[in-house]
Amino acid sequence: MTPTLLWNAQEARIATGGRLSGPSDWNASGVSIDSRSVAAGDLFIALAGPNHDGHDYVKAAIESGAACAVVHKIPDGCDGLPLLVVADTMKGLEDLGRAARARTDARILAVTGSVGKTSTKEMAALVLSRQGATHWSVGSFNNHWGVPLSLARMPAASKFAVFELGMNHPGEITPLVAMVRPHVAIVTTVELVHAGHFATIEEIADAKAEIFSGLEPDGVAVLNRDNRHYRRLSRAATAAGVTRQLTFGSHIDADARLLDCAVDPKETAVFALLRDGALAYRIGVPGVHWAMNSLAVLLAAGALGAEVETAARALADMTPPKGRGERHLIKAGAGTAELIDESYNASPVSMKAAIATLAAARPGKGGRRIAVLGDMLELGEQSAALHAGVAQAVTAWNIDVVHTAGPLSAALRDALPEDRRGIHADDSAALAPLVKAAVKAGDVVMVKGSAGSRMGRVVKALQEGA
How far is the C-alpha of 309 from the C-alpha of 312, rounded, in Å? Predict the structure, then answer.
């Protein structure tokens, strides 16, 4: 398969306002900012960060097959190599992103929200890709470098594109959405996430509402009708000039209304009303939160010009992104156990959703439902109370044992009934071998925590020898 041409030398020069040095007859089929993963034909952007300077790896990137390197200084030993010299490489990346957006006729969706951004983006990418060439940001490339990088990688001939926009401070979404200029914007929900950087949850809602500032004329806002900040978001959208708003949720007035949802260990069955039409479909991932966000995806797909019933059918093929519900069989004693990997990140609302999903799992004979939970970070002064509050979900969903790691999770351990308390350790590294030794055949084990708590260590330990 012939790689898609993204940039030739002259296009990249014009987009960035830079100058070409060395061979200038190159064509780039990819864009990279990491010399360790450069593929043949990539345009390597030498970003200068606080800990590493991409200029130190320009020669290695070219030797690995990069078509050209974008630099703001010519490194020693790189004379004669194919270079595009710009005033600042970060600005050069942004310029490439803006140029990629300007040259495409793709219908574009942007997704933000306190939780569910990546899973919603992945669902949207799946359903749209069944109806035309679709580009989407990989992983959680949702910040000041991830968004322009994702834009710069967008083929001009794309029919649809999906971008995730994240933030943990006010004012961060505004410049991102100005680059993306979406036709449709989803706000999945507003919850107490990154609370350490905001005085109130209303400030978090206002920061998410920045996404409306970049909507194209006649753009559509898709909002969670069940969220208590719905009216605040709706007013913000109106103030930004958004004249068309669609809503999803269980609320009777929602445009896409969840009527019923059945969760089993492998999938989720959804029965919904989209405006006045009934729609039944399955999602290949278990969880009520997946069902809810799928409604936002279907509304967005329709607003982008896709066929909604076809989009709904495609959701049966959905698989969870890495660290967001992946399931694995692991060795445990003389048999096997099931591992649910939710280790990518955590907040109070996503922690409770993961516990509800664990409750729907079916342990083997004599098996238990076990939660292995790490610290939830950036929760501010309410951190201890929010950690302790997770205990209510553990009890409500009848989880058998909860192992915890980290100083913040000690508040959760203390709030648990004694018969649910498992092992507690200072960090995930200390907890991992203890959990591995405690898991028995037939158990179902769910692992979750904020990225900074590094609960992936526990996942790795459980999978060793699986």
Answer: 5
In this prediction, residue 196 carries a pLDDT of 73
115 annotated to a ligand binding site: yes
Contact 316, 127 (CB under 8 A): no
Measured over the CA atoms of residue 209, residue 111, residue 144 and residue 28, the dihedral's sign is negative
Dihedral sign for Cα 355, 359, 360, 362, please. positive
Residue 365 marked in a binding site: no
State how far the Cα of 6 lies from the Cα of 317, in Å rounded to an integer: 29
Closest CA to 30 of 3, 12, 10: 3
Tell whether 213 is in a known binding site.
no
3-state secondary structure at position 292: helix
177 is in an annotated binding site: no
CA–CA dist 150, 160 (Å, integer): 13
37 annotated among ligand-binding-site residues: no
pLDDT value at residue 327: 92
Give pLDDT, residue 388: 96
Q: d(Cα 141, Cα 148) in Å, to the nearest integer?
A: 9
Give the Cα separation of 280 and 261 in Å (integer).
10
Domain boundaries, the chain: 7-89, 104-317, 326-463
Residue 117 marked as a ligand binder: yes
Strand 369-374 versus strand 401-405 pairing type: parallel
Q: How far apart are CA 109 and CA 399, in angstroms?
A: 38
45 strand-pairing partners: 70
> Tell me: domain 104-317, CATH 3.40.1190.10, correct?
yes
Q: How confident is the model at residue 1, as a pLDDT?
A: 60
- Over the chain (466 residues), the average pLDDT of each successive run of 10 is 88 98 96 94 94 94 96 94 97 98 98 94 98 93 95 98 95 98 98 81 96 98 98 98 97 97 92 94 94 98 98 96 90 93 91 93 94 93 93 96 96 96 96 96 96 94 81
Task: Provide the whole-model pTM.
Answer: 0.88
Q: What is the DSSP string of 337-380?
A: EEEEEETT---HHHHHHHHHHHHH----TT--EEEEEEPPPS-G
Domain 7-89 in CATH 3.40.50.11030? The answer is no
How, if at all, do strands 444-448 and 335-342 pair? parallel
The predicted structure's pLDDT at residue 380: 85
Q: Is 114 labelled a binding residue?
A: yes
Give one DSSP letter per residue of 265-279, joined into a string: SS-EEEEEEETTEEE
- Indicate the CATH number of 326-463 among 3.40.50.720, 1.10.10.10, 3.50.30.50, 3.90.190.20: 3.90.190.20
- For residue 74, give the amino acid letter: I
